[in-house]
Structure prediction request, 167 residues.
Amino acid sequence: MKLFIPKMYQKDIFSINYQKLKNKYKLIIFDLDNTIGSIKEDICNKETTDFLNNLTEYFIVIVASNSYKERVLNFTKNLKCDVFYLSLKPTLHVLRKIKKKYQIPYKDMVIIGDQIMTDIFVGNRKKLLTILVDPIRNIDFKITSINRYLEKIINKKNKIVKGEYYE
Ligand SMILES: [Mg+2]
Prediction:
């Protein structure tokens, strides 16, 4: 069950203390849908674009989405970060690719996402720092609804609280 518990839970990507993460972590992987953008947005908004581009001064910043190529490349076209589409989270596919490309151990990586069943689960499998955020909007792709249902059960059982660390 530990694999489904985030190390940290925050409201959104802006509420995270990156200053603190800087001392310990080198690379941050962001989920796309409902983490850095809603599924109704075709392109990353200005505020988030500036925010993520600014983070690249301190971290290797990556967007890893399970979504398809056109969606991901179009959404991230103004971002200065590296991008992976069809990531197949929660399989280890994308984490292995990132590790191979950047030669950084998993313990120096952070993964931030809105879904326990994909983002948190895959990160915990390799002991990354896993940070759960609230979904930007309560609209999901259909395929996500089963995950949301399971998340509710997990959250209730584990009493996951916003802003707390679970390490
Ligand atoms: Mg998501």
Notes: The mean pLDDT is 91.
